[in-house]
Amino acid sequence: MKTTALASLLLLSPALVLAQQEVDRATNAAPTPSNQQLERVSVTRQQTDTDLRRREPVAKQLYGREELDKFGDSQLSDVLKRLPGINVSGGQLRMRGLGGAYTQILVNGEPAPPGFSLDNLNPAQVERLEVTKAPTADQSAQAIAGTLNIILKDAPRIVQKDLRLGLAYANEKPVINGGFTYGNRTVGGLGFVLPVSVYQWDNRNHTDGERLRDGGLTRLSSTGTDHSHGRGANVSPRLNWKLGDDETLTLQGFFVTNRFFNDGDNTTTEVFYDPVKSVRPRSVLDTTHNRGTFNAQRLNLQYNNRFDEDKRIELRAGAGSGGADFNFDFLGRDKNGVQTVARSTTGENRNRNATLAGKYSQYAGEAHTVTVGSELERRTRDETRRTTENGVDLLPGIEGQPFDATITRSAVYAQDEWEISKQWSAYFGMRHEQIKTVSAGVGSDFNSTSKVTTPLLHLNYKPDPKGRDLVRASLTRSYKAADVQQLIARPTINTDYPATGLNARTNTQTAPDRVGNPNLKPELATGLDAAWETYLPAGGMVSVGVFHRRITGLIRNALALENSVSWSSQPRWVAKPINLSKATTEGLELEVKGRAAELFPSLFEPTTALSLRASLNLYRSHVADIPGPDNRLEGQQPWQFNFGADYRFKAVPLSMGFSAQIAPKFTVQQTALQSQDSLASRSLDAFAAMQLSKQDSVRLSVNGLFQPKQGTRVLIAGLPDYNLSERKPVAWWSANWEHKF
């Protein structure tokens, strides 16, 4: 409780921070560098993440090696869940409480490959993370919630040889992870880095469920286990060639592959069936086996040249491929163990893409840096999928039929970074982006084109030109285009209710079929962001921000009973994505971090090696076409609280720390008929690290302590029917050893 109280006090302490800042300002003031990106800058000391954040022309959070290495994580998702305003749910990155589709993920400024998971990337291969809450012109504006840009390791200035070996445990047996990084600068202006990582995972969750369906006539309760395990590897080599003083050529590769397995068993008991006849309890044992592979390969070539001291050109070209295949088997047995259902789903997809991009920048007068650029990307996707039940196609004429899609994205943009005065700076931008999707296949023929023009304005104001306070404001437009799966009109049926054959029958609202909508338009969002930031002399900071998004054309699943569908002779409940009229979301974002003595000088000695951090994010949203209460945007929790501390001992080379995340239970009214409850979440991560020598260090850590059951409950208005699913996560313990040659 003392820790929680201290972290809470952090968020209520701006007055203390400002008082301390006023004392230090006179002796620690330093001029702020210009926003002119083409200007040569001489760096006299290593800049911290906070220093770099303060110098950015737009609001951006930066996290470097210190944050990436702190807990010894082997998966990037574990790093991200501890950052302010970010949470990871079901493998999806969420910013500002919004679903994963609202957050743009880039790797070195390029869209992440299709099917890419944050768990595929070891933090040891990452140079830094850039989190941007409002879009900029030189990146795609498909970022209503924000953008995460993952910058892979660059070639070092000196020889680098690092070996990392780790052992982790969460289930029946420990798993290993390892990585080796070798980097060097050679003759002729060549530099390279070769980071290699291998990893395994092995998790087991206990699952519970309960369903009430058929108007309350059938009550089902289930219990079981879910065992997920697998292995993978990734490599991200980089070659830098310095052709001249201001001319460089860079070749960046990114390769990832993994093999995954998922085994589950579930016992379902029918506790109530027909009140007219009698109670007829019975149990059914189901088992599932899912296995597959994922791989992605990409090469990017970038050429940079600065000439005439005030002009710069950047050219990029890239090509990539990848794909996945899977085999999912479901075996249903009665209480005597006799197999009654054998259902198998197999599929594979292949993706290929190529990109071209270029931009040109130059000074315009004494205060402007003007940049113009364009991008072109072409992606193709080929996919096949087939589901059979007891050897018979589940949807004859649809299942097993291949389809392909081609997505062409083009964009042009212009921006101006304007140093108005010593107190004011501005960033103006305009981006026009077009996405054309063409698909062919049984049940999936469509042609969709979306065009979006996004004006952008970012302003920075320094109340004192020599001080550390900074006020930022942004007025932007962003958007979210429908993905291929949302556009394809090919149905996916709920297998609890057969759609064909002699047993065909109508399903229920809690077990709908799903189908895409080729007429979907992109969601458009007009956003306003404002923040006050103060940077403390010893490296700490306090930030208070607000944001507002007004979304039109919101995409939401509509649930309806359709009397005539192409895949069944019976009426079927169908969930289909549609464009609603509008929605709004707004929030308050508070962040405090720094040395304890700087934040609370009256409570801690100046030499206390304790760092504190805390963030509180409050969210609210409203969907106009859905009745309230709780007509929130999908998956957006009302608030999220993160807090943590790090301490370094003086007598021994030992440091330790913790980070905690808390979010409440909440309800989302998804449609006029359906709502969903999400359970509360909390988690604690902790680490202890010791430097054994100049070359060797060890780190012990645990992720996910004290997690309660996670899950959702779906309810139908006016009916007793509901669908509850829960799982109990298991903590992940690990030990890592690092050796620097």
From TrEMBL:
Residues 1-19 form the signal peptide. It comes from Pelomonas baiyunensis. Belongs to the TonB-dependent receptor family. It comes from the Bacteria. The keyword Phosphoprotein does not apply. This is TonB-dependent receptor plug domain-containing protein. Residues 28-51, 499-518 are annotated as: Disordered. Residues 55-147 form the TonB-dependent receptor plug domain. Residues 252-702 form the TonB-dependent receptor-like beta-barrel domain. It is a multi-pass membrane protein. Coiled coil: none annotated. Residues 29-39, 499-511 have a biased composition (Polar residues). It holds the Pfam family Plug. It is found in: Cell outer membrane. InterPro entries: Beta-barrel_TonB, Beta-barrel_TonB_sf, Plug_dom, Plug_dom_sf, TonB-dep_rcpt-like. Keywords: Cell outer membrane, Membrane, Receptor, Signal, TonB box, Transmembrane, Transmembrane beta strand, Transport.
